[in-house]
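QA checklist item 7 of 12: single-chain prediction sanity check.
[x] sequence parsed
[x] length recorded as 260
[x] structure emitted
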Amino acid sequence: MTTLELSNVVKDYPVRGRTLRALDGVNLRVLRGDFLCVVGASGSGKSTLLSLVAGLDLPTAGTITLDGEPVTGPGPDRGLVFQSGSLYPWRTVERNVAFGLELLPIDRSERDRRVDWYLAETGLDGFRRSLPRQLSGGQQQRVAIARALACEPEVLLLDEPFGSLDVQTKEDMQVLIRQVWKDTGTTVLMVTHDVEEAVFLGTRVVVLACDPGRVAAEIPVDLPDERDLALKRTPEFHSLRASIEDLVREQHRRTGMWER
């Protein structure tokens, strides 16, 4: 069953008296249980696409539906994690995770159950009473992921969530989010500039063309379902990564720009 569908999506912005088209006729289908990664050069509209799916903005034309219902604004059926965790600094870890649940019509016992489960799932149970400033960058992103998932959304939206982390922490977080995805069965739509990350995490990778953004290619990731970091050293991984990087570079050559 289709969870999320974009049909002929167009997004225009007024810029200095003219119209800038960020997305042009994007068609995309995200199936239930997918881990779909979107990559592309600068000007491909990756962040614009995610903003539209999150309901933070509306398309100029076309439709976005989730389980057949039009997306017209933010909602608990979509959880969003940004590059910076955007945590509430005055709330402890467990109260940050509980924040979205406090807005849902669920009782206290169910709220506590979810907080406990997602803290354990993301390895944060021992930090539940810590404040964000007492955590590392990777731990803060774990809190943001736990907070987004605690509401049990239909789709988890990830906007380059590991882009500001060091290489070791980033790879640890990649392994974590892949395991959380398998454990929860949550559908994931992620935008990233890192092709290696997209290939390691994704079930499919979509490459966006540039100026305006549109789907240039959709590549299935035919790699083992059980993945660890050793997979990145295999010939199959290197071959797939190289082919997708070539596609992205082609967009770079056409626009004279690379990912900011």
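[x] summary fact logged: The longest strand covers residues 2-15.
[ ] second reviewer sign-off
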